[in-house]
Design brief:
Helices cover 31% and strands 17% of the residues. The chain has one domain. The longest helix has 18 residues. By secondary structure, it is an alpha/beta fold.
Length: 262
């Protein structure tokens, strides 16, 4: 495995020798507890109502995959126990999602470097330069809200999501090689009344083939921007995750996907 990583890295170095500096991602460190102001201040950080009910965005703490795996810690600070995980049945989803809350920890590092593979946690360029955390939060939340809108099961839940990684393409990759939209998030289903887990936190990888060069230009001409493609993809990802017994299965996208995970 180490030999393969060395070969891949050497190949990347020859192909993109101008990209010498890297940014160190923080996605593998534990989530920080966001202060209330960090969640509610930027536009787009409020929870989205998906039905008649809503949840209080300030009452939910971000999900910690590490702590949840070790201690089954609740998403909501007031919760005291973990209910048995829901069982998904073939052919239909047993849940109706009342509310979606997506958290983008400020500990995630934003990269504005125009490299083929910048090493930050968030890479996003289709909105004007600004609060990238808020921009990607809105993209993910709108997409997931769209994806769960058609679910009509007997169990009412809130969907709590922590973004781990959101890597769209830089300008350099967009107009040359293309690559992979690398998106990872943790999710849990929460009881709207008690704030307790109804499922254990689960990490979802939702990678998508990213167009480059003439293919990217042609896609934009037909309205298929990065934002449109990513949004539609995430909507389908969450639909499958909540309606298929095995959940969503990440696609195998080859060389660039391997590089993203080195």
């Amino acid at each position: 495995m180490k030999s393969m990583q060395k070969i891949l890295l050497a190949g990347l170095g020859l192909a993109v020798s101008a990209c010498t500096a890297v940014d160190v991602p923080t996605r593998n460190v534990p989530f920080e507890q966001l202060p209330t102001s960090a969640v509610s201040a930027p536009v787009g950080y409020q929870s989205t109502e998906v039905g008649r009910a809503s949840i209080d965005a300030t009452s939910l703490a971000p999900i910690s995959s590490a702590s949840a795996a070790a201690n089954a810690a609740p998403v909501q600070s007031g919760a005291t126990s973990l209910a048995a995980p829901l069982q998904l049945h073939p052919g239909h989803a047993p849940v109706t999602v009342k509310s979606v809350s997506v958290y983008v920890p400020r500990s995630l590092k934003v990269s504005e470097a125009n490299r083929y593979l910048p090493r930050g946690d968030i890479v996003w360029r289709e909105d004007p330069i600004g609060d990238r955390h808020a921009q990607v939060q809105k993209i993910v939340q709108d997409a997931l809200s769209k994806g769960v809108a058609g679910l009509n099961g007997p169990v009412e839940v809130n969907l709590a999501v922590n973004l781990v990684r959101f890597h769209a393409l830089t300008e350099k990759a967009r107009y040359t090689t293309g690559g992979v939209h690398s998106i990872t998030f943790d999710l849990a289903l929460v009881d709207p009344k008690t704030g307790e887990f109804l499922t254990e936190p689960r990490q979802v990888r939702a990678d998508l083939d990213a167009f480059g060069g003439q293919q990217a230009i042609n896609a934009v001409a037909h309205g298929q921007t990065q934002k449109v493609r990513i949004s539609n993809h995430l909507a389908e990802v969450i639909r499958q995750e909540l309606s298929k017994p095995e959940g969503y299965e990440n696609a195998s996208l080859g060389f660039f996907q391997v590089l993203n995970n080195l």
